[in-house]
């Protein structure tokens, strides 16, 4: 027997074993039970004369064979799309939006024990010193919104924005806090907001996914891919992650020696195999797999121009400050605009690197933080203005924010003075903002105390923000559910309230 | 003290206990209506014992009800009527019992039964109104019919806020709008009345609600600031809430000593409260949110017509569950748009939102769009249309948002649309409108957001510079 024959034989044996392993006693029982059961059920239903109801609502139900069919919301939506800009690591509100002149006076003074009693911090130990604002503030626009000189471009569009000044959370570590803000639970396993949106609305453009995730900053958010995961929803609803460097999608152009027909033929062949698999095991996740292959092909073949920011005119590149090919937040912002313009419902951007503890130059308020601000300022401002001039801002909700805030005290890791200026994680007060998509411009909602330590009015939780986002997309967050493990689940669990005061 | 809480306990049995006489006497009333002969006639012999049990339970209900009415948690007027009706039921029951002792009373049985049933119905309904609120029964019906029953008390603007009385002019209107519903002459939940200065300062059954000079220690403010889901939060979750500005005003007034006779100008006014006070000189900002679909309902669209449009590649969906209005978008069928457009005609009344951006729609097809009279949002960006086609759109006076970005329309074409009353935004970036035309357009569309686009961002050296570690202070 030659080497090749031996190899083949081993392969066949392995394949047979794999098949045998698949077909266990459990499968047999399951299949026969289903067989007998469905016979009985079929007969029963026939006698009742029940078929699919001919209501238009029926078209809105979840269909595993066509999970991305466009669907309609509960009430007329104000926002057709959402662009969520998440600053992973939690930017300091005290250097950006929450102006606290009182804190400046207290700079360098030891923190009074009354502020520390009963509180837990991620790194602060013993008695830290207060740290005044490390940026200069001015009021901007007709609304007089306080924005620091760290964001000179964004300051010019202050009147388009609703600031949520008193956001709170109950998680002081990155991963759980990110999970809470994106999935409604600090633990793994829940679907992200974008997945809920896609589950509810499908994809309006059948050549593009309903939910796209883009990352920048050199690292994934601490919570990993779960923040754009589908949790217990069918996996077809998870965010489709595009590449952050080079082309967002691979093989927009046909690779050398591979014709377009051949690519289609191979996708068809793979899907056929998967269809067989589905027929055998009836696992809806196999359908998701097929749908994903088809979607990837469509993105490469039907709409390569959408996925390609290189062809944008020069003045747009200048406006956004984009540098095609490199990994950059600005590139992702521009891509987000193109996606939304073409009917994508939810684009989620994660920009890593905002965790300014003061442990290194990059992680300090006076060096790394400034560079991070510069890397987002122009492109976010450009996004607001560009959507506006295209008539898309009124139907696109932009959300900006981190997972928590930062302390008015300077961090003193292990009770020692730090090399650089930084702040610890803080759960009681931080700023997020929303713009467009039926949200008022020029509003500051909520208030923190004189040193920005606690929220005193207009408190907003992650659930409130989620409720508001769903509301703008046309969903009542209390009624928008998915049946799982014997009970209906909601994005906002048992909480959340729409922030009506910022809605136009 | 114990006696007091004991009576409170007894009173609280009333809402449960009343169901005994209601059930028992309803049965008695029904039996009284039975004919003297026939299949069911033997049941009549049970009327007297049923009436007796019903009478006893009615007496107990009256006693507990009387105790409960003393708690002050219910509006006096309604309680008075309910109380006398309840006593009436008991007396009538007793009366019927008396008639049954004499055999001659038999002939009055039928009308007496009706009187008893009617009395029961009214008394029971009033009891329900007391516990659940007067609009409890009608509310679902009203919301089903789309009627809005919430009463909103509108604040009158003050001519000069500084000259106004701090309490009478600023604070009382807030309390009136958000608190008097449950805490005034008609109703005193928690034994709290807020419509008179002395009673407001006296507080409720848990004591004072205002600590002059200390808003943070005042129960009223504490309760307003509690999370909405907290059971002690005020106003209750389902009632109109104090706004942020109203809360700020209340805090400011308490911090300034909760005075009832001073004028606004006599009180200290720190920076944050000034804009809130100044806003009182203007009309209350009205809820300007206009629904983005037409208000009048429309008949259901023909399912086959929808399917035909879908088969042609458009995404056609109701704008929302339960609405017959449709949205249509043409993201993936951009080439032979003109051939598809006639398919819109059978749906011309239902189409509310249409997205035709980046399609090859021509001027001629706009004639069809011009017949979709219920359109509120229309996107024609980056299409080959011109002024000629735009003229066809003139009948679309429901339109709220029109996107003409990247088309060759000119100022004269756009000016022809000035009659549209509902138009809110008009997007005209990258069109053939000349720079000098904008002044005229702004004049023609005074209330419309005209977006000419072309926004530029300043070039800042810092955009591309990085701060290095060596640069630290």
Tell me about this structure.
The complex is a heterodimer of chains A (504) and B (473). Chain A is an alpha/beta fold. Helix content of chain A is 33%, strand content 15%. In chain A, strand 15 and strand 16 form a beta hairpin. Chain A starts with a helix and ends in a 14-residue tail after the last strand. The model of chain A is unreliable at 42-56 (pLDDT under 50). Chain B is of the alpha/beta class and 473 residues long. Chain B contains 18 helices and 9 strands. Chain B has helices spanning 2-12, 14-17, 19-32, 47-69, 76-101, 109-132, 138-144, 166-178, 197-202, 219-225, 244-255, 273-279, 303-311, 337-340, 366-369, 387-390, 411-415, 438-444; strands at 183-184, 187-188, 315-318, 326-329, 351-355, 377-379, 401-403, 425-427, 449-451. The radius of gyration of chain B is 34 Å and the shape is flat.
- Beta percentage of chain B is 5-15%
Strands of chain B, total number = 9
The outline of chain B comes out as flat
Biggest beta sheet summary of chain B: 7 strands, mixed
Helix-strand pattern of chain B: HHHHHHHHEEHHHHHEEHEHEHEHEHE
Cα Rg of chain A = 26 Å
Question: What overall geometry of chain A do the principal axes of the alpha carbons give?
Answer: globular
By DSSP (H or I, 4+ residues per run), the number of helices of chain A equals: 12
What class do helices, strands and sheet pairing of chain A give?
Answer: alpha/beta
The computed structural class of chain B is alpha/beta
| Number of strand elements of chain A | 16
Our estimate of the beta-strand percent of chain A is: 15-25%
Short description:
Chain A is of the alpha/beta class and 504 residues long. Chain A is 33% helix and 15% strand. In chain A, a hairpin with a 2-residue loop joins β15 and β16.
């Amino acid at each position: 027997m030659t080497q090749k024959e031996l190899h083949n034989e081993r392969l066949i044996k392995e394949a047979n074993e794999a098949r045998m392993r698949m077909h266990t006693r459990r499968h047999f029982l399951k299949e026969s039970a289903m067989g007998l059961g469905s016979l009985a059920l079929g007969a029963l239903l026939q006698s009742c004369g029940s078929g699919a109801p001919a209501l238009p609502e029926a078209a809105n139900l979840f269909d595993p064979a066509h999970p991305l069919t466009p669907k309609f919301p509960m009430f007329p939506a104000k926002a057709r799309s959402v662009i969520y800009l998440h600053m992973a690591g939690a930017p300091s509100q005290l250097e950006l939006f929450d102006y606290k002149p009182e804190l400046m006076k207290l700079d360098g003074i030891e923190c009074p024990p009354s502020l520390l009693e009963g509180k837990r911090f991620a790194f602060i130990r013993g008695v830290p010193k207060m740290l005044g604002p490390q940026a200069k503030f001015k009021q901007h626009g007709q609304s007089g919104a306080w924005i620091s000189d760290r964001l000179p471009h964004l300051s010019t569009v202050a009147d388009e924005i609703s600031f949520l000044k008193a956001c709170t959370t109950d998680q002081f570590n990155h991963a759980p806090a990110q999970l809470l803000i994106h999935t409604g639970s600090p633990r793994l396993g829940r679907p992200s907001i974008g997945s809920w949106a896609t589950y509810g609305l499908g994809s309006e453009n059948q050549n593009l996914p309903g939910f796209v995730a883009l990352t920048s900053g050199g690292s994934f958010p601490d919570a990993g891919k779960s923040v754009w995961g589908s949790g217990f929803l069918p996996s077809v609803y998870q965010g489709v992650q595009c590449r952050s460097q080079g082309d967002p999608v691979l093989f927009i152009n046909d690779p050398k020696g591979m014709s377009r027909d051949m690519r289609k033929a191979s996708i068809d062949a793979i899907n056929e195999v998967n269809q067989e698999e589905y027929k055998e095991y009836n696992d809806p996740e196999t359908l998701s797999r097929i749908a994903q292959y088809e979607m990837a092909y469509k993105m490469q073949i039907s709409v390569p121009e959408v996925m390609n920011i290189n062809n944008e005119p020069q003045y747009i590149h200048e406006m956004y400050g984009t540098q095609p090919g490199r990994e950059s937040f600005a590139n992702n912002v521009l891509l987000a605009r193109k996606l939304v313009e073409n009917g994508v419902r939810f684009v989620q951007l994660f920009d890593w690197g905002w965790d300014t503890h003061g442990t290194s130059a990059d992680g300090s308020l006076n060096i790394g933080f400034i560079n991070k601000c510069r890397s987002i300022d122009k492109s976010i401002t450009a996004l607001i203005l560009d959507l506006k001039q295209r008539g898309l801002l009124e139907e696109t909700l932009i959300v900006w924010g981190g997972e928590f805030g930062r302390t008015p005290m300077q961090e003193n890791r292990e009770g020692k003075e730090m090399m650089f200026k930084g702040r610890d994680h803080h759960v009681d007060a931080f700023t997020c903002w929303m713009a467009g998509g039926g949200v008022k411009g020029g509003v500051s909602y909520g208030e923190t105390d004189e040193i920005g330590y606690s929220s005193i009015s207009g408190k907003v939780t992650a659930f409130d923000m989620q409720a508001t986002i769903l509301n703008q997309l046309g969903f009542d967050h209390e009624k928008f559910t998915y049946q799982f493990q014997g009970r209906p689940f909601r994005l906002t669990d048992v909480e959340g309230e729409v922030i009506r005061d910022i809605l136009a | 003290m114990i006696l007091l809480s004991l009576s409170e306990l007894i009173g609280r049995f009333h809402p449960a206990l009343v169901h005994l006489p209601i059930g028992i006497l309803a049965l008695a009333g029904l039996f009284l209506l039975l004919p003297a002969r026939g299949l069911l006639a033997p049941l009549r012999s049970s009327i007297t014992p049923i009436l007796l049990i019903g009478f006893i339970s009615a007496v107990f209900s009256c006693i507990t009800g009387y105790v409960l009415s003393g708690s002050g948690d219910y509006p006096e007027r309604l309680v008075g009527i309910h109380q006398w009706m309840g006593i009436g039921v008991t007396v009538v029951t007793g009366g019927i019992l008396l008639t049954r002792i004499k055999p001659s009373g038999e002939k009055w049985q039928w009308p007496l039964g009706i009187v008893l049933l009617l009395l029961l119905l009214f008394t029971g309904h009033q009891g329900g109104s007391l516990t659940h609120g007067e609009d409890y029964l009608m509310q679902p019906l009203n919301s089903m019919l789309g009627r809005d029953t919430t009463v909103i008390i509108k604040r009158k603007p003050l001519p000069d806020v500084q000259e106004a009385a701090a309490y009478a002019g600023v604070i009382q209107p807030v309390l009136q709008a958000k608190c008097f519903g449950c805490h005034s002459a008609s109703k005193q939940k928690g034994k709290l009345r807020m419509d008179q200065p002395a009673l407001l300062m006296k507080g409720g059954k848990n004591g004072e609600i205002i600590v002059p000079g200390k808003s943070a220690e005042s129960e009223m403010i504490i309760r307003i600031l509690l999370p909405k889901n907290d059971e002690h939060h005020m106003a209750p979750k389902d009632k109109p809430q104090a706004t942020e500005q109203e809360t700020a005003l209340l805090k400011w007034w308490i911090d300034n000593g909760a005075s009832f006779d001073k004028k606004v100008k006599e009180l200290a006014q720190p920076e944050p409260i000034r804009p809130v006070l100044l806003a009182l000189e203007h009309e209350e900002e009205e809820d300007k949110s206009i629904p983005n679909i037409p208000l009048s309902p429309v008949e259901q669209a023909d399912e086959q017509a929808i399917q035909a449009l879908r088969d042609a590649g458009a995404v056609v969906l109701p704008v929302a569950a339960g609405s017959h209005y449709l949205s249509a978008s043409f993201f993936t069928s951009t080439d032979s748009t003109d051939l598809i457009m006639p398919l819109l005609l059978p749906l011309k009344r239902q189409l509310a939102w249409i997205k035709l951006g980046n399609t090859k729609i021509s001027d001629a097809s706009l004639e069809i769009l011009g017949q979709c009279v219920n359109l509120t949002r229309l996107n024609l960006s980056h299409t080959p249309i011109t002024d000629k086609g735009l003229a066809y759109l003139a009948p679309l006076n429901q339109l709220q948002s029109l996107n003409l970005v990247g088309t060759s329309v000119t100022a004269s074409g756009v000016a022809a649309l000035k009659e549209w009353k509902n138009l809110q935004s008009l997007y005209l970036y990258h069109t053939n409108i000349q720079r000098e035309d904008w002044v005229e357009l702004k004049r023609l569309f005074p209330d419309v957001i005209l977006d000419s686009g072309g926004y530029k961002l300043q070039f800042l050296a810092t955009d591309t510079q990085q701060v290095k570690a060596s640069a630290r202070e």
